[in-house]
Amino acid sequence: MRRVALGIIALTMPAVLHAQEPSPPTGAKANPITEAFRGFGYFGNWLVAAFDSIPSDKYDFKPTPAQQSIGFIAQHLEDANYQLCARFSGQKRPQLPGDELPDTVRARWPKDTLVQRLRASLMYCAAAVEHVNDANLADETPVGPPGSGRTTTRARDLILFLTDLADHYSQIANYMRILGLVPPSALPRSGG
Hints:
By secondary structure, the protein is mainly alpha-helical. The protein has helices at 2-19, 32-37, 41-53, 70-89, 103-106, 111-129, 154-178; strands at residues 140-142, 151-153.
């Protein structure tokens, strides 16, 4: 908890100081902190490529009975992306057909459906990040059940979004290696 608080302070202090400047110096980025977060795309691209490259008959695979299946991870990521990105952007989360179904049912949807929905959630998040700037990272946003009065900061939810992508990419990359597949981040780079 203390590390999270220190991380939030470290991220928000430059925003507070920056907000006091009338305009950025020539050549400087207007929002250097939030600009860094806009680079989340590579995790999103790797995740979509990973799920896309895993054969559909492996979507029930999980290394041990206690772990999540590949299909479960895909549907969880979609849901978490929408939740976190709606919170930090202040946008309304889209309600899609099937959202009301239990996680265990959505985890068994066809691979194409899961990959398409994951891709759509990442596109929503890319647009959501555009609603964030250095000056509003410290803004309080509601969290928890409606009416609970609980709040957090935009910065916290933005950090949670990015770390969730990284965490689940690591998870799915390990599953791929167990299955004898090469994760997208380990493939040879083309063009040099």
